[in-house]
């Protein structure tokens, strides 16, 4: 897709930029514990400020459901934002009206302010045109740098793009360019790794991917449902037996589309789900006992998956291969991630990964920095993998 970027902006000196960011940060005892999302949007904020714009930041925090909830005020994150930016940030306890107008009057060119939690206003999630108009009244142009909220058609994520000149921020731009390289216009062959606990949570993803990729690698608990659909007795494993028919339909659709579905033929099993259990063993999928559960993919199967990846030019990854939070059931995820990272570093693979568990798994494997792109967006990344149109992205189209 073609979308407007910061490069398309003219002189912004003294102009007011309404910038949608994601400051929905993890907190403990009133302090921010992780600032990745702030660091992601810092380049956009600093670029606009350095070009002389007055930067007003818009963000949500938590789920206040249209009420003013004191411990979900964005005033709580200002210190963390200032630390990352290395600049002073004014806090404004409103998102529209005279108080915001007064703040704009006080700000000098290059100054930064953060407005209050947009979700304190019921009209935010309803995309109320009146609220959109009121917010826009204090801005000259709009920048969306929050891909993680782009699947929501809210006032601050979609509505403003229709009433002000709208542009993608640097983080949004990088995300859209990476995703386009991965599925919209990828270099083939394309592989997708889809893991996680349940098929039901990723049905639409799987149905869409079989029409887009050459190799679909299914791991995690959801692989058990596909194995059961193939007639494998998966013992006590996590399995959605009521969805085996759907799994068969997905595999039939993959066959029709020329997509190869990879299921584990060797697995790591145990009679209990615990770290390094005494009943741990590796076996063929047809040797799983009635009182055992599949908790990871076996090493021989991982080697076969590595061979498949070596034939590919593009990889999209969402979800772990096994119960990676508990050792040794992280082995397959770590091994495959390191192979994908090595292929990326040598220049033979474009690798894009996303989703909370996936990001955690890649950091755990020590290869997060080696992938071509890692999306921290959860819902928006999944909806993109489902082939859905994201309202916040659509609104930026040139």
From TrEMBL:
Key words of the record: ATP-binding, Cytoplasm, Glycolysis, Kinase, Nucleotide-binding, Transferase
Keyword Ribonucleoprotein: no
Annotated transmembrane regions: none
Xref: HAMAP family: Phosphoglyc_kinase
Gene Ontology terms for molecular function: kinase activity
Name of the protein: Phosphoglycerate kinase
InterPro entries the record matches: Phosphoglycerate_kinase, Phosphoglycerate_kinase_N, Phosphoglycerate_kinase_sf
Localization annotation: Cytoplasm
Residues that coordinate or bind substrate: 22-24, 37, 60-63, 119, 152
Species this chain originates from: Novosphingobium ovatum
Gene3D superfamilies recorded: Phosphoglycerate kinase, N-terminal domain
Quaternary context: Monomer.
Catalysed reaction equations from the record: (2R)-3-phosphoglycerate + ATP = (2R)-3-phospho-glyceroyl phosphate + ADP
UniProt pathway annotation: Carbohydrate degradation; glycolysis; pyruvate from D-glyceraldehyde 3-phosphate: step 2/5
Family membership: Belongs to the phosphoglycerate kinase family.
Binding site for ATP: 202, 325, 355-358
Main location, first listed in the record: cytoplasm
Enzyme nomenclature, EC number: 2.7.2.3
